[in-house]
Each structure stands twice: as structure tokens, then as C-alpha cells.
Batch of 2 targets.
Target 1
Amino acid sequence: MNIKEILNENEFMFKKKFGQNFLLDQNILNNIVSLGNISCDTIVIEIGVGAAALTRKLSKKAKHVLGYEIDITLKEPLQEILNGYDNVNIIFDDFLNRNIKDDLKDFDYKNIMVVANLPYYITTPIITKFIDEKIDVEKIVVMVQNEVADRFSAIPGTKSYNSLTIFLNYYFDIKKAFTVSRNVFYPKPNVDSAIVVFSKKAKKIEVKDEEFFFKLVKDAFVQKRKTLRNNLKRYDLDKINNILKSFNKDISIRAENITIEEFAQITNKYISK
Ligand code: SAM
């Protein structure tokens, strides 16, 4: 029986609130799997297993697949769909409520890759969860609505460039890999999607004090339309102005026009003086 038939046989009801549009196109599933550099030492964390078409393919390449699925009514169909896929473990829970290190502790692996196909509003909390819990992830492959795919790697001066962009780009090289037509999902959603790949930076930008760096960036963007003079009142503005002058900018600029490298330099010079 194929996946659709198993879902039907189990009278599975699709739930919009969980963003349930399942991807069943074999070519696209293969293309997603090939983005991950999965080896026989890799554990793949898959968030939002759904009907497990991707899970099956991941399990053939990886050492283990640790999947999370919030919808408990998928438990029975998944038992059938994943029958014989012995290196797959599914946790039926909201991924955002888990402690990732605890869940990983019983597995043996050399590297971690993450795959997630979830509504956009949960995608960012998921990525920041891996950063906050200090999980050393090689790659995160996410599927999001096509029109938001470029937001993660927004460049200075654009509407989407904000403190989150800087935070994510500090840890990862971020690239849109390809778009995925709405026609390949079951049921068909209203929008096309895109695959975005977050690869761990081989060499992070040098920042002498990460905590200060992130606070400075957050404060600089606190009111996006205001200048640094307004947003950074609690800092030594003369000092910041002098640092900005070294790259031909000044305190009357907005944070959206400062690059991540410049924020790093402001941090390093500010704390060393
Ligand atoms: N990976 C499958 C695929 O590509 O066909 C399913 C993708 S479907 C768009 C998203 C899946 O994530 C749904 O099965 C949904 O129930 C599950 N989900 C949504 N929010 C979740 C959460 N917070 N934690 C775990 N799973 C979640």
C-alpha cells in the first residue's frame, strides 16, 4: 500500500492548524535528501514527520533518524508506513517543548543534520532553539513559503534585514536551494515553497564578546526607523561615532544600513578601548 492509501485506510484527517501538506514527489524528496551531506555517521533530526515520505528516504542514508511529530493521530498510520525502517524513532510531541540534548543522549553519531518542513512562524523558533541549546548542527534544511525564503539571508538596506538576520547569519551561511511548486503537495496548499539551507559557518566572524555583540545589535534595531543616536542612548555615543567614522558612517545612520561585519567591528573596538 502506498502512503496515500495508508492515510485513507486509517481515516486520517488533515489538520490545517499544524500546516499539514505532505510532500510525496519522489524527485523532490531525493533532491532534499541530497542537500544534507548525510553519511552513515549522521543522525538526522526531522521536525514534522507528517506521512514520513521524507523520513523513509533519510533513514536509508543516515545512521539514525530522530523524528518529531505533534499530531498524535499520525501514530497508527506511521507505524505502518515506517514498518521495517528500524533506525527511525519518532517522538510524538511539540518539538518546541523538548530538550534536544536529552532526546539525543541515547544515540551514537558523529554529526547532526536537521530537516524541517513547517509553517514559517515556527521555523525561526526552531532554528534559534538549536543555537540556544548549543547543539552543534552541520546543516539545517528547511522548507518555507517561497516569498519568505529570502528573508533569512536579507542584505543591509532591505526591509527584511533585522537583528534576527544578523543573529542567524553569524552562525550559518544561508542559501535558497530551489523552489517547490504547490502542485506536488497533498493536499495542495495556496502557495509555492522553497528549500533554504543553513550550513554551519566554517569560520565565524571574529567577535570578542558574543553577549555584548547580540545586545548591541538588538538595541540598535529596537526601533527600526530610528537612528543609532536614538536607539543606542545608553552606550557611549562618542565612542560609537568614532568607530563608525572609520568606515565612513556616523551615528545618524540606521541599524538596517550596518553590515554584520561592521557590527562585529563596533563590538570589538568598543570593548577594547
Ligand atoms: N515532513 C513531511 C513532508 O515533508 O511531507 C510533513 C510536512 S507538513 C508541512 C508539517 C508537519 O509538521 C505536520 O505533520 C505537522 O503535524 C507537524 N508539526 C507542526 N508543528 C509541529 C511542532 N511544533 N512539532 C512537531 N511537529 C509539528
Target 2
Amino acid sequence: MPPISEILKKQRQFFATNHTKDISFRIASLRKLEHWIQGHYEDIFAALKQDLNKPPFEAYATEIAIVLTELKLMLKKVRRWSNPKCVASNLINFPSSAKIYPEPYGVALIMSPWNYPFQLCVAPIVAAVAAGNCAVVKPSEYSPATSALIGKMCKELFDDEHIAVVEGGVSESQALLNEYYDLIFFTGSTTVGKIVMQAAAKHLTPVVLELGGKSPCIVDETASIKLAAKRIVWGKLVNAGQTCVAPDFLLVHESVKKMLIEEMKIAIQDMYGEKPLDNQDFPKIINIQHFNRLMKLIRDEKIVMGGDSNPITLQIEPTLLDVVSWDTPIMQEEIFGPILPILSFSNFEDLIKMLTSLPKPLAAYLFTSDKNNERFFLRNLSFGGGCINDTIMHLSVSKLPFGGVGESGMGTYHGKAGFDAFSHYKSILKKSTLIDVPMRYPPYSHKGLKWLMKMQK
Ligand code: NAD
């Protein structure tokens, strides 16, 4: 791999040829990518199995299908979305036309994490290419099999001057961040997000930060408890809880707490069997550091289910914790593992008010059949996005922009939002040269001022 500065120089030269702005070039690039993915399912499954012990169903549903959906949508819409849009001009500028021209930013940096290592790296590539950019891509060092596969895929499909993959760890990331880009699209932790934003600030580079946080899941006394239990357990345990939008902790009305815990125990057994550690389809924790971190978090807690682990396979049982205090260590950091702390509440409105004092999470979930509670939750709590009566599934809807707010990030993508994230919208007013209203020029007159004020009404 040539030095980063060399890759960037070539990408800038290539971008300047306007080749990436050509719609047929974008479509051809997206088609190649789609065909490659469709022809390499087994390779993707194998890489995700190696990195995270993901079963093929999860690998397809949560990684491949999301990318293919994005590709399909971009291929269908890229021509329309790239066209300039006419908007109404105004009387002051008569006669004129006003248009918005979508244009690619130029050369983007895409940095991605390890938890959905294929999807979270390739979906931004799809959006970058559709919007007509060049990109340098940095997959995560913690998912080496998938990162190597993405490197191989991009080498086969794209010239480095269009899309280049730089593999490596923190030092490579830091070296990448020392360079100038037209956009940085970062997915990862809030801590590294701040480092990225600082680096971007040096050049006033726009950033999209897709970060994490502690996403609450609330179950009130009117919820359908059996269904809530199934959907919460599923959302928590998919990818062994290593999901940015996983319900991080559970807040249940005290009157239904016992029932919900019992239903969740049943749901866990139904999904993963009596011995989840023997279940071939249960994903592993990414590395020993995270495994040890998670085991330490449950050490002093009251375990109501699970708690066992296997340090050889790096698997931790689905674990339910009965937590009484917000001050406990597990309530201080994003869990990112198959562990669900359960707290109870007695007053819904007080609970929501208390949650507003915490950092704004990436997701929040409410299980209820009470319209007033639903309204109060949506009106008072700020968070990236979420579901009523489900978990995680909001990100499967391409028409819902996906992203955080506050500490959980800024900017959105998925579907049109992805195209927008990688586009600058250039506003152009085109004036006629036939008429030139003299009133706007000095020396100003009282009559001119009165006319201007009248126009404003
Ligand atoms: P991370 O922030 O540690 O790493 C992300 C990327 O940053 C990697 O490519 C890594 O090489 C690079 N990096 C790490 N340390 C760096 C440093 N000091 N300087 C520069 N670059 C550095 O995140 P992770 O552990 O890979 O992923 C887990 C986090 O990502 C969780 O917080 C999770 O919530 C979040 N996440 C968010 C989304 C989302 O879409 N919002 C999706 C998945 C994960």
C-alpha cells in the first residue's frame, strides 16, 4: 500500500477529472459491488464467523441484507437524487430561477468499528460512491478477517484512486486523521469520536459521527409483556449484545417486573436453549479485553439468570441482572455485551424526566399500549431514534434516517439520508440580464425602503 499522502493525492487528481460525478460511472461501480457481494456470501459468512462467531442467518440479516437494500435503493434513485432541483425564487429577484445542485464533497474518510464489520464499513462506501465521492476506508483492526475481505473486495472492484482501503490499528487511524479530507464519516465510540472531531476541526472538515451510548428500554404496566420479553431479549442478544442500538438497560414498571423477568427467561431458553454456551449460533465477545471488562461488570451484581462464561470461546451467557442502584458500575458505561441490567420504576413521567438528565442516547425503546405515555416519551426524551413496541428494527427501514444526537453522534445515513450525508447541496440563483431593479443600489431612497418593507409582508 502506498503512503496515505500518495493515495490522497491520486484521489484528488481523479476526483478533479469529474469521472466520479458521471452517473453511469456511479451506477457501474455500485453494480460491481452488488454482484461481488452476491457472489461471495460464503466468504462473508466465513469472515464474520471467524471474527464474531456470527451464524449465517445473523450475518445475512444484519450485515449483507442491509448493504444489499442500500445498493438496490441507490441504484434505483441515484439518477433522480443527483439531478438539480428547482425551487421557487422570489419577487425581489424577478425574473430568475433557483436551483439546488447536489455535488459530491470530494475525498472522504470512512472509519468503521468491529461489531458489524461488513455492514458498517460497506454501507457508507455505497453512499459515498452513489453521491460521487472518492474515499479512503479504514475498517477495524479488531475484526481482521472481515477487514481483510473488505480490503480484497475493494482491490478487485475499485482503483485506489477511487476507493482505497487502509488496514491497521490506532497508529494508522491517527496517520489518516493527520490528513485533510472533504468529509469524515466515522462510526465508533464516543471517545474516539471526539478525537476524530478534533482532527477534523483543524481543517473545518464536516463530520458524520455515528457513535454509541446507553440506550434505555422502558416497559410500562400496559405493555404486552410476553411479546415485549421476546423482542427485548432478541434485540439484546443479537450479536451477543455488541450492537450500538441494543437496549442497554431495562426500566420496567414495578407491577410487571416479576412477570417480565419470567417471560424473558423463557424467551432466552426458547431462543438459545438450556445451555447457550453450547449453542453454535451464539456469537462471541470480540476479544479477551472486552470479555474481561464484561465479566468484571457483573461480578458484584445480583444475577437472576446466566452469568456463566467460557474464556476459551469468549462467550458469555445471556445474563439478566436485578439492579437497584443507578450508581453501580454497569450503569456507568455502554455495556456492549449479552448482559441486561433491570431496574424498576413507579412513575412514568418522573422516570422520563430523570432520563433527560443523562447523555442523549443513540436509541430508546418503549413498550406500551398507553397513548399518553407514548406521547410523553416522544415529546420529552431526545435520542437518535428508536421503536415503540420493538427494539432495533427501526434501522431496517431505509426511509428512516439513522444517527445519533448529542453524545451519541451527529448526522444521519441510510437511504436518501446516506446520499445526503456525502453530498453538498449547492444553491444557485440564476438572474436574468434583461431587467435590473435600480432600487437595491445606493444611494438608497425612502421610497425604496417602503417598497422593500411592503415586499416583506
Ligand atoms: P472505536 O471507537 O474504538 O473504533 C472505531 C474506529 O476508530 C476503528 O477503525 C479504530 O481503528 C479507530 N480508532 C480507535 N482508537 C483510535 C484512536 N485513538 N485514534 C484514532 N482512531 C482510533 O469503536 P469500536 O470499539 O470499534 O466500536 C464500538 C463502539 O462503536 C461502541 O461505542 C458502539 O456503540 C459504537 N458503534 C456505533 C454505531 C452507530 O452506527 N452509531 C455502530 C456500531 C458501533
